[in-house]
Design a protein that fits this description.
Layout lengths: L2 H8 L5 H14 L5 H15 L3 H29 L1 H18 L6 H30 L4 H29 L2 H22 L36 H4 L3 H30 L4 H26 L4 H18 L6 H30 L4
Helix pairs in contact: 2-6, 2-7, 2-8, 3-4, 3-7, 3-10, 4-5, 4-6, 4-10, 5-6, 5-8, 6-7, 7-8, 7-11, 7-13, 10-11, 10-13, 11-13, 12-13
């Protein structure tokens, strides 16, 4: 009997929270390939290898494009093989690709290793973790997605900090190795042993609702859910509108993240202030994850997504004027709040529109 099956029978609370924790461990460690983590490496790599910032940051752009192409394949793999298999393989590959960056002294090797990590970051971990959480929660989907996003926000704070400390006391090569090993140590066992694909697969109901579907008054206690197949979903304009809008927002997000530290230093701020702006982004992202989860349970997802886009449209160009500590922190916090919505709202929107089947 699988570990998840045995634990689900003995756990005194809803097993979906353990699934959420396990998926969250993958969200936490995917920050090994985050653009904010790469930002910490730009200066030491540039100084040691003589590469330009544009060359180094280009690896994230190439990886992002590759992730866009890989996403349909990842979606097919999730449907065919399940989220547990996809996440387990993703963590293995993420750790290996991250550690291999320690020996990447040629641009093509750097692009290949980091590009693979970005595909894992943007595509397989993001898709598989959000899918499995959406399958386990319907009524509480917004808050569950918010908590999942919070695990990413915590990792977004700690991984750049960890890398900075290792670079300070050792070197950037050791930092890559430490990040890769950390990904394996934290996430490999939870995703491979504790994840069950659906609550029904272990004899439970979504949200931990009781087995009976009706209350004493005769009214259904289980929210009615759409059930679209992949073939049906791809024929709807709504799917492509959501995908296009979210994709454009992610382009903005990646560009700001990669260059934020170096840009603030160019604006005359100290290295410590520039680095701490990342922490402000991550802290507001953690707070925003809970807030957006609350919002998307009470407003239609399309309105919530419009709010995310509006805030990001204000925060991103505001950095142009950021030449004081206060401005850097305010804009970084506003950007982090928008970024949390970008991670919380779209998975809920897809699940609300098309159900758990696809």
């Amino acid at each position: 009997m699988p570990v998840a099956q045995r634990l689900s029978e003995k756990t005194p609370f809803y097993y979906g929270w353990i699934v959420l924790f396990s998926a969250g461990s993958s969200q936490f460690v995917r920050n090994a390939a985050a653009s904010l983590t790469l930002a910490v490496f730009i200066y030491p790599i540039s100084e040691e290898l003589g590469w330009s910032r544009t060359l180094i940051a280009g690896a994230a752009s190439v990886g992002g494009l590759a992730a866009s192409g890989a996403s349909p394949v990842v979606g097919w793999m999730v449907d065919k093989y399940g989220t547990r298999i996809v996440l387990t393989i993703s963590i293995l590959v993420l750790g290996l690709s991250t550690m291999s960056l320690a020996w990447a002294t040629a641009p093509i090797a750097f692009y290949l290793a980091y590009g693979i990590g970005r595909v894992i970051f943007n595509s397989s971990i993001q898709i598989a973790s959000s899918v499995v959480v959406s399958r386990w929660f319907i009524r509480m989907r917004g808050r569950a997605s918010g908590l999942l996003s919070m695990t990413h926000a915590i990792g977004m704070t700690l991984f750049p900090l960890m890398a900075s400390l290792v670079i300070l006391y050792r070197d950037y090569q050791t930092a890559w190795i430490v990040l890769g090993l950390t990904a394996w140590i934290i996430a490999l066992l939870p995703v491979s042993l504790l994840i069950a694909e659906t609550p029904e697969s272990v004899g439970l109901k979504p949200d931990g609702d009781p087995d009976h579907d009706e209350s004493e008054s005769g009214e259904s206690t289980v929210p009615e859910e759409p059930a679209w197949s992949v073939r049906q979903a791809v024929r709807t304009p709504a799917l492509w509108l959501i995908a296009a809008s979210v994709g454009m927002l992610f382009i903005i997000h990646s560009g700001v993240n990669i260059h934020l530290v170096a840009y603030l230093r160019d604006q005359g701020l100290s290295e410590a202030i520039a680095a701490s702006a990342i922490s402000v982004t991550a802290i507001l992202m953690a707070v925003g994850s809970v807030a957006w989860g609350w919002v998307v349970e009470r407003l239609p997802a399309r309105f919530a997504l419009a709010g995310v886009a509006l805030i990001m449209a204000v925060a991103s160009p505001a950095f142009i004027t950021a030449d004081t500590v206060a401005e850097a922190y305010i804009y970084a916090g506003l950007f982090g709040f928008a970024l949390s919505g970008l991670l919380v709202v779209p998975p809920v929107a897809y699940a609300d529109y098309y159900g758990r089947r696809s």
